[in-house]
Amino acid sequence: MFRMILILFMAAGVLLAYSVSLSRAGEGDAAPRMKASEGSERIAPLTALSPATEPGKEGYLIGSGDVLDIAVWKDEALTRLCVVRPDGFITFPLVGEVRAAGRTASQVKAEIEKRLARYVPEVTLSLEIKQINSMIIYVIGRVNSPGRFILNVDINVLQALASAGGLNPFAKRNSIKILRHGSDETTLYPFEYDEVIEGRHLEQNIFLRRGDVIVVP
């Protein structure tokens, strides 16, 4: 009788150990499956659409009214501040008139260096845009502070509206227009305020260019 009970206890122990090992093996298989499932369902964080920027833009384009600090190393006579005239030109000693408007600082610098080379061998010239006065946009209509704004950084439509004090209560928020004047034609860009601030159609929130006019009816 005692031997029978001992055999039963031993058999029960073997069965218990076997079931535990199966349970652990099952858990080991389930964990990788759960991890793979989590990885496959992981969603990347949402990102806003980048506003449209000026195609082919390589740097700031100088405009009328901008102040350029031009200096030739160790030559005070060839060091001066030049204001870009309304016709887009500047005047520099030995060189004469140089077109600056519509060009980058590096382009103007290269032309002045080329012209000076016949007078000053191995010229070392620096050109810095000291003050930006030509980046002007206009915000008109039903905003709290309409007017003319001089910019020294790139801004988009929402930032420009904020600079103008925001929309007044009577503004037609979803009928805003941006007018962009080209050499031959004027382009109109629609701007629906509510859609943009709700994170939809963010491509409407374009970066502004010199001379753009925002109209808020």
Question: What does this molecule look like?
Answer:
Among the domains are: 67-131, 2-Layer Sandwich (wza like fold), CATH 3.30.1950; 136-216, Outer membrane lipoprotein wza fold like. A hairpin with a 4-residue loop joins strand 8 and strand 9. The chain is an alpha+beta fold. It has helices spanning 2-41, 105-116, 157-163, 193-197; strands at 67-72, 75-83, 89-92, 96-99, 125-131, 136-141, 147-150, 176-181, 186-191, 213-216. The protein has 4 helices and 10 strands, in the order αββββαβββαββαβ. The model is unreliable at 1-9 and 14-57 (pLDDT under 50).
In short:
The chain contains 4 helices and 10 strands. It is an alpha+beta fold.
Strand order of the largest sheet: 7-6-10-8-9
How would you describe the oligomerization state of the chains in this entry? single chain
CATH class of the domain at 136-216: Alpha Beta
Class inferred from helices and paired strands: alpha+beta
CATH superfamily of the domain at 136-216: Outer membrane lipoprotein wza domain like
Largest sheet: 5 strands, mixed
Total strand segments: 10
Helix content: 25-40%
- Indicate the overall shape: elongated
CATH architecture of the domain at 136-216: Roll
Low-confidence stretches: 1-9, 14-57
* CATH topology annotation of the domain at 136-216: Outer membrane lipoprotein wza fold like
- Counted by DSSP, the helix tally is 4
Distance between the termini: 103 Å
Mean pLDDT: 80
% residues in beta strands: 25-35%
**Rounded to an integer, what's the Rg over CA atoms?**
35 Å
Give me the strand/helix succession.
Answer: HEEEEHEEEHEEHE
